[in-house]
Amino acid sequence: MTPATHDEHDLMALFGGTFDPIHYGHLRPVEQLAHEIQLEKVILLPNNVPPHRPQPEATPSQRLKMAQLAVEGNPLFSVDSRELQRDTPSYTIETLATLRKERGTQQPLAFIIGQDSLLTLYKWHRWESLLDVCHLVVLARPGYGSELDTPELQRWYDAHKTEDAGQLRQRPQGYIYQANTPLLDISATEIRQRRHEGRDCSDLLPFSVERYIESQGLYRA
């Protein structure tokens, strides 16, 4: 990688999820993304699930531990537990605004989301403010098209999208970048279903996570 010039900064990327459990469908596309846009660090942000969503089967501490085990020894990843330490619903925009304050006004920040999240972004709390604090990097997802759900969302997307990943380093926030990452048809729902049925999941998630799930008796019938 070429050294950062005076108008270019290291790009800090964040990837949130319920991680109930974390699996290769989370990790491998992000590793591919890191290679594609030259990321040196990705911070995993396990979500504290808002009340209107189904509650995870695993506890916050179990979901945190699974995320930590999944990336142990991998220098690309670290885990930030701040959302799990809140008793109130955790809104992505508030977490990102806090990180923006911590990192200062010049640090380029990218928030990684799946194509499925982009399509329904208008349902997020203060979604139109996201690009005021970060870039959005979108991972392709199996079975999801590229048409956004509302004309307003489509206009917003068209106004901010870039095909040049280098631009993500040249400004602290404001762009949407569609990544060319692999499509892995793995879901946490499928893993929980397999576990409930007593079936093997070793092809879907790291061994350390599978061993922890066994030791905790998670996702049993």
TrEMBL record:
Keywords: ATP-binding, NAD, Nucleotide-binding, Nucleotidyltransferase, Pyridine nucleotide biosynthesis, Transferase
Known catalytic reactions: nicotinate beta-D-ribonucleotide + ATP + H(+) = deamido-NAD(+) + diphosphate
Keyword ATP-binding in annotation: yes
Top-level taxon of the source organism: Bacteria
InterPro entries (UniProt xref): Cyt_trans-like (IPR004821), NadD/NMNAT (IPR005248), Rossmann-like_a/b/a_fold (IPR014729)
One Pfam family matching this protein: CTP_transf_like
Pathway(s) this gene product operates in, as recorded in its UniProt entry: Cofactor biosynthesis; NAD(+) biosynthesis; deamido-NAD(+) from nicotinate D-ribonucleotide: step 1/1
Xref: SUPFAM superfamilies: Nucleotidylyl transferase
GO biological process: NAD+ biosynthetic process
Ranges for domain Cytidyltransferase-like: 14-194
Keyword Kinase among UniProt keywords: no
GO molecular function: ATP binding; nicotinate-nucleotide adenylyltransferase activity
Signal peptide: none
EC number assigned by the record: 2.7.7.18
Function: Catalyzes the reversible adenylation of nicotinate mononucleotide (NaMN) to nicotinic acid adenine dinucleotide (NaAD).
Family the entry assigns: Belongs to the NadD family.
Protein name: Probable nicotinate-nucleotide adenylyltransferase
Organism: Rouxiella badensis
